[in-house]
Amino acid sequence: MPGGHSNIAVSDASARVLRTCALSDDVGRLRYVSGKRQQAVERLGLHRVRDVLLHLPHRYLDFSNVTSIGFATVGEDATVVGTVDKILLKTPRPRMNIVELYVLDDTGVLCATFFRQPWIAEQVHQGDVVALSGTVTFSYGFKQMKAPFYEVVSGGVDGTSYARVLPVHPVGEGVTASWMRRIVAAALADAGDVCDPVPAALVAKHGLMSLARALREVHFPSSLKSAEQARRRLAYDELLTLQLALLTRQDVERAGVRPYVHVTAGPHVQAMYAALPFALTEEQQDAVRDILTDMGSARVMNRLLLGDVGTGKTAVALVAVAAVADTGTQTAFMAPTSVLARQYASNLGHILDAAGVSWALVTGSTSAGERAKTARRIAAGEVCCVFGTTALLSDDMAFAHLSLVVVDEQHRFGVNQRRALRQKGAAADSLTMSATPIPRTLALSIYGDLSCSRIRHRPVPGAGITTKVVPPESLDLAYGAIRDAVAAGHQAYVICPLVDEQDDGSELDDVPDRAQSGAKRLHAATTTVQELGRGALRGMSVDVLTGRMTSEQKDAVMERFGDGTIDVLVSTTVVEVGVDVPNATVMLVFDADRFGLATLHQLRGRVGRGKDAGMVYLECAAKPGTPARRRLSALEATSDGFELADLDLELRHEGEVLGYRQHGGVSLRVCDLKADADLVEAAHQEARKIADEDPTLGHPLHAPLAAECVERYGAYFEEVERA
Fold first, then answer.
1. What residues contact 654, with CB distance under 8 A and at least 6 apart?
2. What are the b/e assignments for 567-601, b being 16+ CB within 10 Å?
3. Which of 180, 226, 294, 690 would you label with 404, given CA atoms 20 to 30 Å apart?
């Protein structure tokens, strides 16, 4: 070669780097994925190779632990292997097909029953060896399994092909479980040996598998123990990248922004302490200290204040508002409903007046003239605190110096709405509040970019609440309690899951017993108010409140209920948050099994707020001992919202607990917040440490993590940016 140089072959990238890059390839590049099958795979949300690798099994069948049919215990789960002796296809009525497989081994016979799956009679043949996994029952003289998972195995009864842990992936129309295993195996062969984005020191610190090994073991584990270890490694990655994405995005958004350094011990703060109707408890003082420390620092505050019903979060927030007044700037105080915004103005306005803090109210029902006048005062900086709804997000609401944003029941707002309000003051501190109890692990993971303060105990204990589950046939107990309360000069709520008969219930909480309770006609507020007014509560003043009413209509109804004109308010969950009528002492919740525990806990917090005890009746048609009744029995047993929140998290996905499925937000796919509490804590601490040292993740050590954050959550944040 000219110049005496020898030819040296230098590859552009190592094979592992190339495989890592292939994770972003279209899913159609994989073997077995083309045509209609590719369409079916994409309907499952699997569009890239990485999506397939992270499409984890939702259960495993341990075919390495096979039980003989004769020794399979009735009432317990078991895996058996035997030879198909007889296949029956029955059609007891139109569109009802039943396939019965009679399977035998040396110890006995078992009947496996499949409903509405007639194709099984064609896929399985007499003489096939099948592995069955399910719950063993006994009837008609045979051990049975209803709708078990089955697999035709090779090698005969004495073979070992089934002696392994078999993954069962989520599938849909056009993709069977066996085909999904083939597709995943192809993805692992082509791109499974990937670079590990997590620094080796963190992997070693927690004794985690390498990423490449975890991907293999989670899909095709050598044992159930190994599968769980692999899942935990992937859960750690999910937690770490989510929190890093949230933290670094916050730093990028606020790059170049000069934070407000608030005056935290000025005259308005002192006046506010004197104006509050009660002395702050130790927990409230701790929360105030956290907030004022943040507000007085040279860093933008982003804090979540959690407190159960009636724990006095608003009193804590008022001290923060007073610090804003001492600084000469402004607060935007946003509530999820006009009812709650008006209630804040009514209940807190006189306290602000006593502390010398100016305030105003802006909702959708504010008249055009009053709104324009208030907007001019806000733009001129003449108003310190503005209570409002999403009306505060409109273009005509311009703040002179917005330095604090307080958002109540923040998970009820879309991510874009919360961000739009913050943009009205780029350097504004953010205080978000929630009376929906949130487990610590959930707060640390989903709200990884927020500091968290908690208030567990009420400053004023109140008279207490008794909760009782009643079947439909015992509703007279609830009606009698309502009649007695009204006769004594009190008021009551009746809660319905639907607004009207046309609702399909699709927006109700996604609770575990939906299919079971779906056969029962659900109560609608608009018809229930008429039925009660003519029937069980005849002679009383009964009115209705729903989220579909205009702001003016809702305000008018709540004003009449507040002044005692209405005896019984029939409502949807629009009264769940913040509504404060101390004279209300009884609540009846229809179809209570269609609500999550957190929602029911919030609802019952509407009664017993005064000097008289509250009584809550939860109507439920489910039988004693069913999952629905067991959930509601937990409400009977405890009034601790955080204890109930932990139970709610066990029963439902974190996105349903917080309402993210409806309101927009990131979600966890792998992490089990109950089982992985240690990983949540670790990932939270390590993400904060990394973000503090390297806010943009620009260090070479963190470059793979940065890329992984973009891959996992970049599309979500881009969507927020476009909104």
1. 442, 445, 446, 660, 667, 668, 673
2. bbbbbbbbbbbbbbbbbbbbbbbbbbbbbbbbbbb
3. 690
Hunting for tokens 């005896």 — which residue is that? Answer: 567
Residue 215 pLDDT level (bands cut at 50, 70, 90): very high
Least Cα distance to 544 among 522, 524, 525, 560 occurs for 525
Angle of helix 627-637 versus helix 641-651 axis, rounded to 10 = 170
Average pLDDT, the chain: 84
Going by C-beta distance under 8 Å and a sequence separation of 6 or more, which residues neighbour residue 53? 23, 184, 187, 188, 191, 192, 215, 219
pLDDT at 226: 95
Are 99 and 114 in contact by the 8 Å Cβ rule? The answer is yes
Cβ within 8 Å of residue 443, ≥6 positions away: 304, 306, 450, 452
pTM of the model: 0.67
- Cβ contacts of 651 within 8 Å, gap of 6 or more: 511, 512, 596, 597, 631
* Burial class for 286, CB neighbours closer than 10 Å (0-12, 13-18, 19+): middle
Q: Residue 304 pairs with which residues in a beta bridge?
A: 432, 452
Q: What is the pLDDT of residues 551-576, one digit of tens each?
A: 788 888 988 998 899 999 999 988 76
Say which DSSP state 175 is in. B
Residue with tokens 């130790």: 282
Q: What is the pLDDT of residues 668-682, one digit of tens each?
A: 788 887 788 889 889
Distance CA 620, CA 523 (A): 12
Which ranges constitute the DSSP H helices of 438-474? 440-446
Q: In this structure, which amino acid lies at residue 22?
A: A
H and E: helices and strands count for the chain: 26, 21
- Do 417 and 445 contact (CB within 8 A), yes or no? no
Please name which of 282, 308, 305, 336 lies closest in space to residue 404, comparing C-alpha atoms: 305
- Statement: residue 184 has pLDDT above 50: yes
H or E element in which residue 81 lies: strand 77-93
**Cβ pair 596, 648 in contact under 8 A:** yes
Instruction: List, edge to edge, every strand of the sheet that includes 302-307.
Output: 359-362, 385-388, 330-334, 402-408, 429-434, 302-307, 451-455
Report the greatest alpha carbon distance in the chain: 108
Arithmetic mean of pLDDT, 231-238: 95
- DSSP class of residue 224 equals H
